[in-house]
Structure formats: structure tokens, C-alpha cells
Write a structure and sequence with these properties.
It is a single chain. By secondary structure, the chain is of the alpha+beta class. It is built from 25 helices and 38 strands. The strands form eleven sheets. Strands 10, 11, 12, 13, 14, 15 and 18 form a seven-stranded mixed sheet that branches. Strands 2-1-27-28 form a four-stranded parallel sheet, covered by helices on one side. A four-stranded antiparallel sheet has the order 6-5-9-19. A hairpin with a 3-residue loop joins strand 22 and strand 23. The two termini are about 65 Å apart. Bound molecules: ligand ANZ and zinc ion. Belongs to the class-I aminoacyl-tRNA synthetase family. Its EC number is 6.1.1.4. It is found in: Cytoplasm. Keywords: Aminoacyl-tRNA synthetase, ATP-binding, Cytoplasm, Ligase, Nucleotide-binding, Protein biosynthesis.
């Protein structure tokens, strides 16, 4: 037929792949194995363009590697627990499970229509007890190994989602999902000891040479290793039940610049003092209203409360410093107390300015600058110590070492390595999550649920009529007998952070026995994931948690994998223009029509529309394009092809009508070419072009440069369209079909069968190239007169000096330059350059 018809072809090939189980990964295979994974989606309702782009990239790699002879694991599943399901339950009175499973059904169909080469037999959903029951078992194993603990702690409380958030989930002081300003609360929480692995997580980054530098740097900063000094200030008069305050500093070199000591609002000394100081108690309460993340504290106004306490400077018994309770001191960092050096720390500078505390310079670029005042803002760079007695003139690093040495010798402090990383608080006061498998008994404390009673499943009969956690108010689910002593006890009603679910799903994909989380040998045969692809928004959260979880499993002897993701690629977003009505409403692209002269109007009202910026597709800006009608209209291959075309994969891709039209035209061009094979005789130019394209496409896909692969294929098609019939051309068309198979798999299958190819092109062997044909036999030679470029020649490679010189002198342009004069001297660099000195 004259046109490729995706409406008929797409589903036919999809059924065939499924019937033949083409993409099922065989763990017992003797081929080399490779694991290609895209971050699994949250089943929010429908697939969006970001998913399509992400999964198309992964699919190209998976299909390509299969054709290169690998046994490929390329699975898909659902990150199915989380808040939106509960919101839907509250808004629409539908059970979170019903909502989630129906979304999964829709999105699964949508993914299947895109023809991804996925092993659907390994599909999993984290909200399935068959998944989360194993997670509970792993949690208990970690509990037994001391990697899980419960502690009362100050937490970030999201007042809208009514739950605790990890520090990683508070962005600019707001909940990452709700956007609500986060408050501080003291609650009993479950924690995972990620800090035990801080050094290892940091060192591991050094081995991840197939990760983007920026992601490694973000993790490094998040872990935040610093070397410092922990030491004790003696109180001038004992009080508040203590005689000393212990502080941590990364700048012991600035010790002579101290003007105050500050402790956190949650510090035991602050609490003791507040017992008989109502004003302080009030100040502490005020500090609680505000997030606990470092970023939040950095931006908040620096406030303090001056206590009656004073401490003695450790290096000068005559020197007294006032003690404040301050809102910018974190309780769970260092010792929850610090000494402030206003001249060299911005927070301290702001604090000192507000409370009129002295600002002493103790670091300068040279000794001569010792007298220069510090004004406007703190000077945080290193330099040499000044106004610092025995430290004067020492470079900052040396001065740090000297103070640590004196502290250790004097017995008042110790050198210490500190990490900014905090333990991972995993308790969530939500229903739609993995129940924490613990039972609270008054006599025995927290008792693990016996493993033969797992999974602890969520009760179905819950209501969302009032905010809060329905597990807390369930009439029966909470009430159980203590597994240890048999007396009446209560189930833990917190559920696990959904990031726990995504910390090991890639292991479960690799191996899924029903009676345990995974089989070690089988999982290890696939891991680490060779290529992981997802959004950079997970640079810290998910990727750090998964790295930790893998280490924790290794620590308890369950797996021997150092890093879960060997290669990481973070793809750009899909963007689109935005539109706004004159009264400020965002309009969807489908509501817009173009009038004469490119004027935009709102279709319904004919009123004028303002063209806004090109932005990431989002519901809030209403600039999304639903992939489904696009697939209906153009077919899966055109959509896939466009997703790979216009931009490098790490950059944003702007969705455009002309782009998808172009992709659809390309599909038909390939189809017409395939209908035009035949002829005999050779065509060495076509042959050469083919071999170069095979090499270049392979290199581009290996390097995840999909747009380059696409450009190469456009060129090859152009060449073949112009070429005369020949056996070389027919052979090239056949190879072309294989080269496009990873990107446009339905078209490729259809063409392959038309050409009488054996079996499925998806399972065929990637074409090979002859390296000899890659060598250029034409070279470009620059011709200069007196050092100035005057002409360039195309010549056969390997000509002799004499031949090149003759060619250069035969050029009209050169003859005109010489204007009758004969050259004094000619310098020839073979294959590159002829320089004529006249
Ligand atoms: C004196 C000093 C002088 C400091 C100076 C900094 C600059 P990093 O480097 O991020 O690890 N600090 C200590 N405990 C704290 C807490 N619980 N909450 C908030 N800040 C705390 O931060 C270490 C520095 O942060 C420490 O070094 C301390 O201030 C402060 F020119 O001590 B520094
Ligand atoms: Zn008990």
C-alpha cells in the first residue's frame, strides 16, 4: 500500500510481541545481561508527555541492546502509594485503592499503545500487599539489625497534608506536594539510620563515573561532610542543671572572633531555663512554627532570646560570652549549640547586627588588613588569622589545626568529622502507605509483627470524611494482642514514606519469588541497573535513599551490590508555549485558534489571547498536550520519533505541531523507500554511507545522543531517496529498517515483513559495519598564499607533494592571487595544506 497505516499496524505488532513474549527477560540466559530502567511512574491518572519522552529513551536503549546480543531486563511498574489517592478519596468519595488501580489500568493501556519493549510479566505496584509485605519483612530485618529506631524528635509538619515530611521533602520551607508552609512539631517517629552510611555514600559517589556531575555534586553537598572541632564552654556560674555547653564548629580558627554562644530552642538547657521563664517558653514556642530544614532556617529572620547565662572563653579565663537561645540553631546538627563569629558567618552577622553584639575581624587576606572593619556582610573566605594572639599570621587551614591541637592537649575539645545528612524519618501519619509492622505493648514496648503474620494489610473499610489518618480512628484494626506477652496492645498506625517503596523496587523487578523479597543470586545477576533514566528532581531524594537501602541490605547480608545504578541519565522536560486570556486565565492549547496574521484568539469567545513563555508542561499553566489523542492521530512511531528528534535528550524539548508533522512525514518516507527496493549493480557511495550510518547511530545510541542518531537516519534516508536502484541500495534499505527499529518499532516490523525479513526485526541482529569503509578517501586541502587562506580543494587522500602542488597551482583563484608572479617557495603538508610564498 502507498501509506503506512499506524492505526492498523501498531496494535498488530504489539499483539505479536506480547504473544511471542519477545521482551520477557530470562534470568537463566547465558547471554550477557543488561538492565535498563526508567523511574517508575506515579499512577496519577493518565500518561503525560514527560513519561512518553522518558520511556521512549529507555526503550531505544533496551531495544538496541537486545539487537546487540544482550539479554535485556526492561520492566515497568507503579509507585502507587501516596497522598493524591487520599485527596481523591476526600474529594470524590472513592477509596484510594479503587482510584489507584483504575489509574493503573488506564496508564498501562496507554503505555502499551506506545509499543514499549517492556517485560510486563514483572509488573508490580507498590500498593499491592504482594509487594509491600516484603517491604515490611525488610523493614523488620533492618529493625533487628539496629538500622531502625524510634525517637521523639522535632519534625517538619505539613499542616495541609497533615503529615510529617523528611527534610528532603521540604522545599523553600514548604511541603513538596502540598506547597503549605511547614511547621515544627515534636513527635515520636521511626527513623532509618542513613547516617551510619554517610561516609560510604560519599565515597561511593567517586565510583559513579556514569552519573551527571551535577547530581553527584548535589548529593555530596547534601551529605555535607565537614571537619571541625567539638568543645565545651564552661559556664561562668553553674545553672540550668549543667556546668558546660558543648558546641561544634567548622571554623576553630575564628575562635578569637566569638561574640556570643547560641543554643537551639529544643536544647535541654533552653528547656530547663524555660521552666521558670515564661518569656523564654513563649520564644521557644514561636521558634517551633517554622520548618526544620537548613534552607528554611537560612532564610528566616535571625532571632534570639538572651538568657542570664554566661560562658568563659576556653583560651582566656577572663573573657565572658553571653548565651542566647536562637531560632537559627538546629537541634539535630552538631551539638545543637554554637559560638557566633559575626565577622565571618552571615547568620551570626545578621544576629549580631540585630542585638548589637561586637563584630571582630579575625581573618583577613593579609596581616596588613587586620584593622579593616567588616561592614555590610560577613566575610566568609579563608585567609590568614589576625587579631588572634598566637594564631596571628597563620593561614586559615593551619590555624584550624592549631586550635584543634590545643583543645585536645588541654582536654577541652576534640577534632570531629561532621555530616549534614540526617537520619531518614520514615513515619507518615497517612493511610495510603505501607503499614509499619510494629505493635506497641505497654509492657514490652514496640514489638515486631512476627514474620509469618506478614503482610500487615491496610483495612479496606475506612472513611476520609474528616482530615487525619483513618487508621487512627479505625474501630478494630489497631487493636491486637502483643505477640510477645499476649496482653492487649495497639498497632502502629504510621505508614512508611513512599520513598521507602521506591528504594528497592528495582531489586524486586530483577527477582520476584513469592515467599521472600528477592532471590539474592538472581537479583545480583541483573544488578546494578546499567542505565537508569529519570528526572533530575530526584537527584537527592530517591537516588540517595535507594543508594542507602542497597547498602543497608548489603550490611545485613542480603545482597552484594555496592551501587544500585551504574549509569544515570537525567532527561530534560517537555515544554510548550503558555496562553493567557486578557482577564488573566490560563488557556489550554486546545482552546486557542490562529486567525489572520498569526493572531491568537480564544476559540469559544473570539477574544484576544496573550502568548506566554515556553514552560514545562503543567496542569497549573494548562499547557499540557495529552499524548493519547496524538497517538490516535499520528501513531506511536511518529510520537516516539519526535520525542527523540529536535533536542539533545538532557535538554528541554518544545512540543510543536510542526515537529510531530515532520516526524509523521518521515515515517511515510521510510515506508515509500521500502516499497522501492530492487535493481542490481553496485553503488559504492551508498554502501559507504550505510556503513558510516551504522557506525554513527550505534555510537550515538551508546552515548545516549538520540537526536544525533535521528539526524544520521534522516541523512541516510535522503541519500537513499536520491540513489539509483542497485543491490547496494536495496541492502541499505534493509539495514535502515533495522537501524530505525529501536525508535520506530512498528514501522520497522511492517517494513521488515514486507522485505521478507526472517522473524521479528526486534529480535534481529544489529547490522555490522566494515571499518575500512569509514575511512575518508577524500580530503579537504587548504591553499594559502603568503599564509592567507585563498582556496580549498577536495582531493584524493594520499596524493604526493608534487601532485598537490600541481593541483593548487592549477586553481583559478590562486592564479588570480599570484597575478603572473611565479612562486618563490611552496610548502606542502600532505592531505592538509599547500602554502605558496610569492
Ligand atoms: C563558628 C564559626 C565561625 C562557624 C565562622 C562558621 C563560620 P557547616 O560548615 O555547614 O557544617 N553550627 C554549628 N552547629 C549548628 C547548629 N546546630 N545549627 C546551626 N548552625 C550550627 O556548619 C558548621 C557551622 O555551623 C559551625 O561553625 C557553626 O558555626 C554552625 F566564621 O562555628 B561555626
Ligand atoms: Zn507485650
Amino acid at each position: 500500500t502507498s501509506r503506512f497505516d499506524p492505526a492498523a499496524a501498531d496494535s498488530r505488532w504489539q499483539q505479536r510481541w506480547e504473544a511471542e513474549r519477545c521482551f520477557a527477560a530470562d534470568s537463566a540466559s547465558s547471554k550477557p545481561k543488561t538492565y535498563v530502567l526508567e523511574m517508575f511512574p506515579y499512577p496519577s491518572g493518565r500518561i503525560h508527555m514527560g513519561h512518553v519522552r522518558n520511556y521512549t529513551m529507555g526503550d531505544v536503549i533496551a531495544r538496541y541492546r537486545r539487537m546487540r546480543g544482550f539479554e535485556v531486563l526492561h520492566p515497568m511498574g507503579w509507585d502507587a502509594f501516596g497522598m493524591p489517592a487520599e485527596n481523591a478519596a476526600m474529594e470524590r468519595k472513592v477509596h484510594p485503592g479503587t482510584w489507584t488501580w483504575s489509574n493503573i489500568a488506564t496508564m498501562r493501556d496507554q503505555l502499551k499503545r506506545l509499543g514499549f519493549a517492556l517485560d510486563w510479566s514483572r509488573e508490580l505496584a507498590t500498593c499491592d500487599p504482594a509487594y509491600y509485605g516484603h517491604e515490611q519483612a525488610l523493614f523488620l530485618d533492618m529493625f533487628q539489625a539496629g538500622l531502625v529506631y524510634r525517637k521523639e524528635s522535632e519534625v517538619n509538619w505539613d499542616p495541609v497534608d497533615m503529615t510529617v515530611l523528611a527534610n528532603e521533602q521540604v522545599i523553600d520551607g514548604r511541603g513538596w506536594r502540598s506547597g503549605a508552609v511547614v511547621e515544627r512539631r515534636k513527635l515520636n517517629q521511626w527513623f532509618l539510620k542513613i547516617t551510619d552510611f554517610a561516609e560510604d555514600l560519599l565515597e561511593g559517589l567517586g565510583t559513579l563515573d556514569q552519573w551527571p556531575d551535577k547530581v553527584r555534586l548535589m548529593q555530596e553537598n547534601w551529605i555535607g561532610k565537614s571537619r571541625g572541632l567539638q568543645f565545651r564552654f564552661q559556664l561562668a556560674d553553674a545553672g540550668a542543671g549543667t556546668s558546660e555547653i558543648e558546641v561544634f564548629t567548622t571554623r576553630p580558627d575564628t575562635i578569637f572572633g566569638a561574640s556570643f554562644v547560641a543554643i537551639a530552642a529544643g536544647h535541654p538547657i533552653a528547656e530547663a531555663l524555660a521552666a521558670d521563664d515564661p518569656a523564654l517558653a513563649e520564644f521557644i514556642a514561636e521558634c517551633r512554627a517554622g520548618g526544620t530544614s537548613a534552607a528554611e532556617i537560612e532564610t528566616a529572620e535571625k532571632k534570639g532570646y538572651r538568657t542570664a547565662l554566661e560562658v568563659v572563653h576556653p583560651l582566656d579565663p577572663e573573657w565572658r560570652l553571653p548565651v542566647y537561645v536562637a531560632n537559627f540553631v538546629l537541634m539535630d546538627y552538631g551539638t545543637g549549640a554554637l559560638f557566633g563569629v559575626p565577622a565571618h558567618d552571615q547568620r551570626d552577622f545578621e544576629f549580631a547586627t540585630r542585638y548589637h553584639l561586637p563584630i571582630h575581624r579575625v581573618v583577613a587576606s593579609s596581616i596588613g588588613e587586620a584593622g579593616k572593619p567588616v561592614e555590610g556582610e560577613a566575610e566568609t573566605l579563608s585567609g590568614v588569622a589576625v587579631n588572634s594572639r598566637f594564631l596571628d599570621g597563620m593561614p586559615t587551614d593551619q590555624a584550624k589545626g592549631e586550635v584543634i591541637r590545643r583543645a585536645e592537649a588541654g582536654g577541652w575539645g576534640e577534632g570531629k568529622t561532621q555530616y549534614r545528612l540526617r537520619d531518614w524519618g520514615v513515619s507518615r501519619q497517612r493511610y495510603w502507605g505501607t503499614p509499619i509492622p510494629i505493635i506497641h505493648c505497654d509492657a514490652c514496648g514496640p514489638v515486631p509483627v512476627p514474620k509469618d503474620q506478614l503482610p500487615v494489610t491496610l483495612p479496606e473499610d475506612v472513611s476520609f470524611d474528616i482530615p487525619g489518618n483513618p487508621l487512627d480512628r479505625h474501630p478494630t484494626w489497631r487493636n491486637v494482642d502483643c505477640p510477645k506477652c499476649g496482653s492487649a496492645a495497639r498497632r502502629e498506625t504510621d505508614t512508611l514514606d513512599t520513598f521507602v517503596d521506591s528504594s528497592w523496587y528495582f531489586i524486586r523487578f530483577a527477582s520476584q519469588p513469592s515467599d521472600r523479597p528477592f532471590d539474592r543470586a538472581e537479583a545480583e545477576s541483573w544488578l546494578p541497573v546499567a542505565q537508569y533514566i529519570g528526572g533530575v528532581e530526584h537527584a537527592i531524594l530517591h537516588l540517595l535513599y535507594a543508594r542507602f537501602w542497597t547498602r543497608a541490605l548489603a550490611h545485613i547480608g542480603q545482597i552484594g551490590v555496592a551501587e544500585p545504578f551504574k549509569g544515570l541519565f537525567t532527561q530534560g522536560m517537555v515544554t510548550h508555549e503558555t496562553y493567557k486570556s486578557l482577564d488573566g486565565r490560563w488557556l489550554a492549547p486546545t482552546e486557542i485558534e490562529v486567525r489572520d496574521g498569526g493572531r491568537l484568539v480564544e476559540a469559544a469567545t473570539e477574544s484576544e489571547v496573550e502568548r506566554g513563555r515556553i514552560e514545562k508542561m503543567s496542569k497549573s499553566k494548562r499547557n499540557t498536550i495529552d499524548p493519547e489523542p496524538i497517538v490516535d492521530r499520528y501513531g506511536a512511531d511518529a510520537v516516539r520519533w519526535f520525542m527523540l528528534s529536535d533536542s539533545p535528550p538532557e535538554r528541554d524539548l518544545e512540543w510543536s505541531e510542526s515537529g510531530i508533522d515532520g516526524a509523521a512525514r518521515f515515517v511515510q518516507r521510510v515506508w515509500r523507500l521500502v516499497g522501492s527496493t530492487g535493481g542490481d549493480g553496485e553503488d559504492s557511495a551508498v554502501r559507504k554511507k550505510l556503513h558510516r550510518t551504522i557506525a554513527a547511530v550505534g555510537e550515538a545510541v551508546d552515548g545516549l545522543q538520540f537526536n544525533k542518531a535521528v539526524a544520521q537516519l534522516y541523512e541516510l534516508v535522503g541519500t537513499l531517496e536520491k540513489a539509483q536502484p542497485s543491490s547496494d541500495r536495496s541492502e541499505a534499505i534493509r539495514a535502515l529498517v533495522q537501524l530505525i527499529a529501536p525508535m520506530a518499532p512498528h514501522l520497522a516490523e511492517e517494513c521488515w515483513s514486507m522485505l521478507g525479513g526472517e522473524g521479528l526485526v526486534a529480535l534481529s541482529e544489529w547490522p555490522t559495519f566494515d571499518p575500512a569503509l569509514l575511512i575518508d578517501d577524500q580530503v579537504t586541502v587548504a591553499v594559502q598564499v603568503n599564509g592567507k587562506l585563498r582556496d580549498t580543494l577536495t582531493a584524493a587522500r594520499g596524493l604526493s607533494r608534487e601532485e598537490l602542488q600541481a593541483l593548487a597551482l592549477a586553481s583559478d583563484k590562486i592564479q588570480r592571487q599570484l597575478d603572473g608572479a611565479s612562486p618563490k617557495k611552496v610548502i606542502v603538508v600532505p592531505d592538509r595544506l599547500v602554502n605558496i610564498v610569492a
